[in-house]
Amino acid sequence: MIIKEIHVKTVLSRSRIYGVDYSINPYTGCEHGCVYCYARFMLKFIEAPYEWGDFVYVKINAPRVLSRELRYARRGLVLLSSVCDPYQPIEQIYELTRKILSVLLRKDFPITILTKSNLVLRDVDLIQKFSEKEVGFTIVTLDEEVRRIFEPKSSRIIDRLEALSSLKERNIDTFAFLGPILPYITEETLDDLFRELSYRNVDRVLVDRLNIKSGNWAYISKAVMEYDKNLFEKFKKAAFNQEYYENIRIHIKDLALKYKLHLEFCY
Questions:
Q1: What angle do CA 61, 66, 69 make, to 5 degrees?
Q2: What pTM value is reported for the model?
Q3: Would you place residue 117 in the very low, low, confident or very high pLDDT band (cuts 50, 70, 90)?
Q4: What pLDDT sits at residue 43?
Q5: What is the pLDDT of residue 45?
Q6: Helices 190-199 + 242-258 axis angle, to 10
Q7: Which of 61, 75, 127, 207 has the fewest CB atoms lying closer than 10 Å?
Q8: Where are the alpha helices (DSSP H) in the chain?
Q9: Which residues are CB-contacts of 240 (< 8 A; sequence separation ≥ 6)?
Q10: pLDDT tens profile 181-199
Q11: Residues 6+ apart with CB under 8 A from 200
Q12: Are 83 and 32 contacting, i.e. CB atoms less than 8 angstroms apart?
């Protein structure tokens, strides 16, 4: 893993994500190395021959820069994070996300956190103090073998589920991000996943399709072949076919009704 400390001029970015005003990414790059990650496009901004998941740039002056930016920023919802995981393993060392939360708390900006790591529980003491806050976990399967292949360095799925319960017990709004749908693979544990999310009492479930426009198809293909080479042709056909996502959308809606879960689609 290549770790590089950098200084940045800006931290608070206007977001194009619906319902989100700003995004903050404490790091460039992500140790989790998820093969399907749409943030792989960030490689074009890196002047080095790295692979996604092999490097992290640490924005060591981010908290100080953010403190300055907030003097002039209009209050709005902040997402941590859009192109990295704010609680990837390096956060244990640098604590940039924790420091950024401390800065945001001074102005009490609404926050929404998306992660694959139960390290977020470390910062519950800060998160609880915000007037408006929510924490979500990306969960696309209950199968640990799928996680090992597609999300190699992320927290175990059971750890994410238990973290959702722990956050809810502390009166923090929670959500699950079922994104991306891995054609046929996600379906294998979909009913059980919705049952688990209902049991964990999440406030909402967000669903998104697989993004294959970020230079990640070659890596996805390799992962599918490792998981089940006999599935590859079906997976490929579905991944490039809107009809598949429309059909599974109907199935997901039925599951949401069955388990009384609030559902939102991103496609």
A1: 130
A2: 0.96
A3: very high
A4: 86
A5: 82
A6: 40
A7: 75
A8: 62-69, 91-94, 96-107, 124-127, 144-150, 157-169, 190-199, 217-228, 232-239, 242-258
A9: 212
A10: 999 999 999 999 999 999 9
A11: 161, 164, 165, 168, 174
A12: no
